[in-house]
Amino acid sequence: MVKKIKLAVIGSPISHSRSPEIHQEFADQAGIDIEFSKVELSKSNLDDWVHSFFLDGGKGLSVTLPFKEDCLSLADEISDRAEITKAINVLFNSKGKILGDCTDGVGLVKDLTINKNQSIKEKSILVIGAGGASRGILPSLLEEAPKSVVVANRTVEKAERIAKEFSSKASQTSKSSNLIASSLSFEALKDFEFDVVINATSVSTNPSQNLNLDESVFRNTSLALDLYYSQAFTPFMDLADRAKVPTVIDGWGMLVEQAAESFLLWTGFKPDTAELIAKHGE
Ligand code: NAP
Q: Which of 14, 194, 257, 270 would disulfide-bridge 40, Cβ 3.0–4.6 Å?
């Protein structure tokens, strides 16, 4: 009998995760048998649980908030792109070693540029948030040669650190040599205009939290994206919609695209994403 491929998504909170159904759809396309679980962990049991999972024959893990940075130290080896992002959203067993990679950035850029037909070349981009998701998407955004990328965060020092780190990386690549990633406090945002505003904070995961963003941040914005995915508009998306931003989207397309890249790493099969992305909300 062919054994099922053992996969899981880990995070906290995790109940909202739609990864199991996405990967089941990919497995059906591939004709592969998988067992996919959702596992809520805490920082204190993360290390033990991940090592036991792989020792027990697990093939791959999808990693979501808040563990993307913590999982770096759990991998035996990490990919070049995870080395740059310093965040991991996928772990997998390759010949007995735990490898870590980051597919968030490529997932986001594929969704924006191919599925949504939105170029970010020469655009001024604001990324709000400086956690794992922000780290995961910044190098891929910079690769698209935008005019500028600004990072703003509640804890300004974290935005400063990330902006400094990615500016120096941007200047090392010929494609993005004219780019500056800089950081701003939320208060300072009112003095700037952005073509693209991305919410990479975790506020949308909790209805009792609020970003306290002023609507004026969207005054010249043509695209607003909340990396969170939900069937209804999030407060961030509502605010952008009220400010008459022409295109307001959530992270569903990115989620499906990053998952497809992860599924490829786990199984060698590249899934078709179009139908699943079109089924958003169902
Ligand atoms: P994380 O590492 O825990 O980072 C959380 C970020 O949110 C930090 O910058 C934090 O600021 C900020 N934040 C939290 N509460 C806040 C509040 N009340 N006000 C202002 N800022 C607040 O989380 P993550 O992994 O980066 O995930 C962030 C979001 O991206 C989540 O919604 C996640 O679902 C989404 N995501 C989606 C995809 C996709 O495929 N669509 C992929 C990855 C992530 P401080 O530094 O000040 O704490």
A: 14
